[in-house]
Each structure stands twice: as C-alpha cells, then as structure tokens.
Amino acid sequence: MYKWLLGTVALVLAGCQNEDAHYAPIEGMVYCAEANPVSFNPQVTTSGSTIDIISKQLYNRLLRIDPVSGEFIPELATSWKISRDGTEITFKLREDVHFHNTAYFSPTRLFNADDVVFSFNRLFMSIILITLLVKPITRIFKVSAWIS
Predict the structure, then answer these.
(1) Domains with residue ranges and CATH for the chain
(2) Distance between alpha carbon 20 and the CA centroid of its chain, in Å?
(3) Is the dihedral of CA 81, 57, 52, 41 positive or negative?
(4) Cβ atoms within 10 A of the Cβ of 53, count?
(5) What is the tens place of the pLDDT at every residue in 15-28?
(6) Chain segment 102-147, per-residue pLDDT in tens
(7) Three-state DSSP class for 11?
(8) In degrees rounded to 5, what are phi and psi of residue 84?
(9) Cys staple from 55: which of 5, 42, 103, 111, with CB 3.0 to 4.6 Å?
C-alpha cells in the first residue's frame, strides 16, 4: 500500500517540473541563516547572529579555534608567544597578505602590525568593553611590522 502511494506521489511531483521555466542567474552570494545581521560591521554589535554571519565571511583572524579540539589554529598570525606572567602576547604575522580589492577601494599596502594594533584598539578601548574585563588592557603596541 505504502509503496503504491509513494510511487504515485513521486510521479505526480515529477510532472510538476516546468522544463521551459527560465530562472534568473544568482549574482553575488546566497547565505542562509537563522536571523538577519544587525549591522554589516560586527565590531559595533554583540549580536551572535551578526558576528557569525558577517565576521567569518569578511575577515581573517589572527587565530581561529578548532571546533572539535578547542585548540588555537594560526590564520593571520603564524605563531604567538605568551609572556611568563600572562600579561603580554606577541604575535608573529603572516607576510604578503593582501586586503580585498573592490571597485570602490584599492588598498595601497599589505596587512601589517599597524592593522592589528588598530583592530585591538578599536575593540578593547571602548568604555563598554573595558568595564567587562577583569584586567583591563592598558597598552597595545607593535614591536615591528613583522617579527622575524
């Protein structure tokens, strides 16, 4: 009984195809998510959906976390060293990293330590985030453009 019903449904659905239908090509990227992003700048929001949707699509990180092992994996940083007292982290950066090039933005230089300092300052020096930290970050600086 069920095989006959299943066969009939499959036959009916197959007849619903319209081979003459013309679909417009998709231009750009289609991304399905459980929510809409609050902003296209994930640095100004705490929405998890915004960070998940936008950050991973647009930005490389210094490190990423392996979802299975929980270990840090290098991305823009090739290695890192944490000081003995845990108050300083020194990142060695990948060289020859290019920024995105678009019709309205043509980068004039490669990624370097200035970009890391800028990003950390933008993230950690906001009053809201400083109040949430147990030990506020007091200084962010570069040792050199790339540490050899």
Answers:
(1) 24-58 (no CATH), 60-148 (3.90.76.10)
(2) 40
(3) positive
(4) 21
(5) 555 565 566 677 77
(6) 898 899 999 999 999 888 887 776 655 556 655 656 677 787 766 5
(7) helix
(8) -55, -40
(9) 42
